[in-house]
Fold GTPase Obg.
Amino acid sequence: MFADRARIIIKSGKGGDGHVSFRREKFVPNGGPDGGDGGKGGDIIFEVDEGLNTLTDYRHRRKFAAQAGEEGGKKNCHGKNGADLILKVPEGTVIKDAESGKVIADMSGDNKRQIILTGGRGGLGNQHYATSTMQAPKYAQPGGESIEIEVQLELKVIADVGLVGFPNVGKSTFLSRVTNAKPKIANYHFTTLNPNLGVVDLDGNGFVIADIPGLIEGASEGIGLGHEFLRHIERTKVIIHMVDGASVEGRDPLEDIKAINKELEAYDPAILEKPQVIAANKMDVCMEGSEEIIEKLRKEFEPKGIEVFSISAVSGQGVKELLYHVQELLKTCPEEVTVYEPEFDPALRFFSEEPFTVEVNEEGEYVVEGPRIEKMLGYTNIDSEKGFLFFQRFLKEQGILKQLEELGIEEGDTVRMYGLMFDYYK
């Protein structure tokens, strides 16, 4: 089956510990501290690979971990940074937190590469802790911890046109005629389980069309493989409803369209705002009442601005006219790809599990300490713009700013967090 969903565990690299050592040279019996810093842990990075169109690589392997940073060494030697782990995914992959279902990242549009988990910061060696009163510190900072979470990968096919219809109406035959796709075709219900993609070429201008697998009533409630298929329609710009215009199997094309639109609306009402066109297929089969069916469809939908085309995917009758109409509809659609905004930062859950304290010391400084703060500082590079923005969001979302205000902090007051000091401003 088409691998459009996978559940995996990802883990960033732990930062290397700082080293404790002292300079030992001839004629220098009591050398100072020279312990080097630990290396940074590797990041987990997701990257779009244009050559991929499934999530098959993640169906048979569950855990992915970046390399840990190495411990610092003697003589101020810096530990080696851990190697990043780059996970390749198809364009259109949405990365969600498995526990909450919230979006972490959407690998669509311009977002081709994104760091999802940052490796732990390398710990400082004991050379950084020497003072006038402590000239031989036997302490080094441990490396920042790794972060491990479970994520859900969902591939939402990026196609200009979505081809929908009940099973066995001829969608696969149509796709094989108008594109370079080679779908499996057979006269069985639910033959198509894969959202087959193909490129239509019209006088040098092309568009991508996706055969969305056969829908059934109740799909929006997850019946059958409903949710597996409906998610692929979200990103399409134009919808082609294909119906059996000759009613070969005795189905009512009008009722079929209404039933599918009902499922689309129940899943996401915004889908019905997309331009639609109706393709009444199998018109090469001369059945009694076929013309009446077409007139019935036109009477129902053309007043709503939805064109009805009488076609035959087998003989090619009416197909070109349909494709040129679809091309014109696409010109009216916005160019940008629908991209889901991030809703969740994995690091925030990782930090929020630990306690912290907010107190005022004898010098009137506001001191914020605790494992939660130490973890956050070990994970975040505050010198970078992105790291500083995360730091600000962390203070707000963890309730630290609120506690500082409750203690009476005012603008210009000093806040201390381990080795970090800054002035408070709203």
Notes: The domain at 161-331 is CATH 3.40.50.300 (Rossmann fold). The longest strand covers residues 148-155. The radius of gyration is 30 Å. The first helix runs from residue 171 to 178.
